Amino acid sequence: MFFGTLVGTGISILSLVLVSYFEPLAVGVLAGPIFGGFVAGYFRGNDIRQGTLVGIVPGAIASLPATVLVAFLLFISLLWGMGSRDFTTSLVIALLPAGIVLLIGAVIGAVLGLAGGAIGARATDRPAPT
Q1: What percent of the chain lies above the pLDDT cut of 90?
Q2: Is 90 strand, coil or helix?
Q3: 58-63-67 Cα angle (round to 5)
Q4: Once rounded to an integer, what is the mean pLDDT over residues 20-41?
Q5: How far apart are CA 11 and CA 61, in angstroms?
Q6: What is the pTM of this model?
Q7: Taking the CB of residue 119, how many other CB atoms lie within 10 A of it?
Q8: pLDDT (tens digit, 9 = 90+) per residue, 52-64?
């Protein structure tokens, strides 16, 4: 059972990387996690519960590049703006919002992947692996 989940997740991540190379960034931020979850749920089979669980991983992975970019830009801008303070204090103050942005972005990507996994599981006529 675990091997089928691992294979479905691997295939969806590979297809996600191939498709995200060709799509524009604005579409890829929202469509990437949904597409990754859809492929994972489709290859997992018609069990919606398993499709949603396997869709979470590629959704979270697909959201990481845009989320890391936004968190990095936020971190740099906050660190740059606090030049007069002590470096350690500035670092802590800048890391906290960047970490929150990373967490929120990963959760949003996981939820979009979960939705894509459920849609993919509903779209397939393949039986769930045993």
Answers
A1: 6
A2: helix
A3: 155
A4: 71
A5: 13
A6: 0.73
A7: 19
A8: 988 888 888 878 8
Among 65, 69, 62, residue whose Cα is nearest residue 16? 62
Q: CA 30, 32, 33, 39 torsion: positive or negative?
A: positive
Domain residue ranges in the chain? 2-123
Query: How distant, in Å, are the alpha carbons of 26, 84, 111 from that of 66?
Result: 10, 30, 16
Q: Which of 42, 38, 28 is nearest to 58 (CA)?
A: 38
Residue 53 corresponds to which tokens in the numbers above? 């669980």
Task: Answer yes or no: are the C-beta atoms of 36 and 113 closer than 8 Å.
Answer: yes
The yes-or-no verdict on residue 97 having pLDDT over 70 is yes
How many Cα atoms within 13 Å fall on the side-chain side of residue 124? 23
Contact residues for 17 (Cβ-Cβ < 8 A; gap 6+)? none
Per-residue model confidence (pLDDT) at position 46:
86
Q: What whole-number distance in Å separates Cα of residue 74 and Cα of residue 119?
A: 34
